[in-house]
Amino acid sequence: MQRIKDFIVNSRVWRSFFRHGWPDNPLDRSLVMTSNIFFHLHSVKVSRKSLRATYSFGLGIMSAIIFGVLSVTGILLMFYYTPTVERAYSYIITLQTLVPFGQLLRNLHRWGAHLMVIIVVFHMVRVFYTGAYKPPREFNWVVGVVLLLMTLGASFTGYLLPWDQLAYWAITVGTSVAAYEPTMGSLVKSTLLGGPEVGQEALTRFYALHIMVIPAAIALLTSLHMWRVRKDGGLAAQDAPDAEMVEE
Amino acid sequence: MNNESFSKDTSKTKTYSLVELVKAPTTMTDRGPDNSIFSFPVVAIMELLLTLIVVVLLLMMSLGVNAPLEEIANPNTTTDPAKAPWYFMGLQEMLEHGHPTLMAVLMPTLMVLFVVSIPYIDNTREGSGIWFTSKRGKRITLYTALYILLVMPLYVYLDTTFPAREMLRGKLPDFVLQAVFPAILMGIIVGLPLIFVWRYKPSPREMVITLFTVLFVSAVVFTLAGFLFRGPGFELFWPWDMPGNYSPWNNL
Fold this sequence. Notes:
The complex is a heterodimer.
Chain A (H helix, E strand, L loop, with lengths): L1 H9 L1 H6 L8 H9 L10 E3 L5 H4 L2 H20 L9 H10 L4 H28 L8 H22 L5 H14 L6 H9 L6 H32 L17
Helix pairs in contact in A: 5-7, 6-7, 7-8, 8-11, 9-10
Chain B lengths: L9 H4 L22 E3 H26 L24 H7 L4 H22 L13 H27 L2 H4 L6 H25 L5 H25 L24
Helix pairs in contact in B: 3-4, 3-8, 4-8, 5-8, 7-8
């Protein structure tokens, strides 16, 4: 058994996949983090203070997790959906009634989207009240605000896609708010909708924004956001003096 | 003491030299012992656990409640009420209380600009990584939140039921009634806690905490008012006492 294991682990194929040994010692534990594309967003060592659940509540990570769930369910939904005024609604009906787990898939995507907005807002509130935007993290705060706006944009563009009364009038109301801006407002509105009111052009544009433009921007900015957290010295919790971490 | 470290002939044994003086906190001075652990496997396990919790919660919610779906979109029949998605209901609620350019454009723009510039207004390092920074910060947050929770719902209610702006229509120019009047009122509501805190010589952090709390709690109040308390005709109702079969939850 031991010899088989040694043979596999020392084979050239295995060594080409994993460039470190079993992570039970400091060197290999460091190498796990630095030689893996997903782990390398983390630092090799982390302050115990920043791991306290009541400090961060894991809200930032949770946003990323929900974004992952939304990506997977979103891609599955794309297999069944066509963004045309004539067929979009009937595709949703088909999905809910004929496709196995179709209703569950749609529920996951819908509730996940709402949850993501809530969690992202909570994350911003947490970062604000813990003063984690302070130098050297100013720019990352700005990136975070942009990510919040992107999250709202992702949710808003997705809201139109079922093409039911709820979607239609919510987008009509939502985009008419933009038109109140005196200089650029009507331009923004007609650019978003591709016409004077919500119709096929709006559905096409919202679909493109929802499945491509905004998720790509979120993925890119999230990478920047996480990388910046590490470059700015990890979570702000570790800047705090030990004594003051005790809550009254 | 014949210690090599303290040898007088430093030219040969000295292994350090002064390179440069930097005006910055040094890396390790005034810090306790290195209180860190290897990220692997602890962080990986925590993230896996968090993933499981989030996915299980979402699954349970999705098994229990179906996403709403109404009839096919019909541009000729308006729904009553016609509401934006819940996170924009704060904006739609604001529209009820003044000129659209003020309420739906100017105020949100100012809010976003303020939020973006927070780290540049308060650029001290004081209290970074500590919830509410200090006991005083905690008190400021609590009292500001309570004040807004009292004043903003009252404002929404009074402005809807006794619309002074409607009663004075025709007697004063529209611009004064719909833009100047609400702007001054909002200015007073937002300004009061700032003036109050100002008397206690606040740090930039405490000023920012006051303003952020005002804006955040107001946003929550307006969002809830618009989402939960507005029914048919966009009138105010109790969420559990809506006329017809309208339920605000159907708009999710």
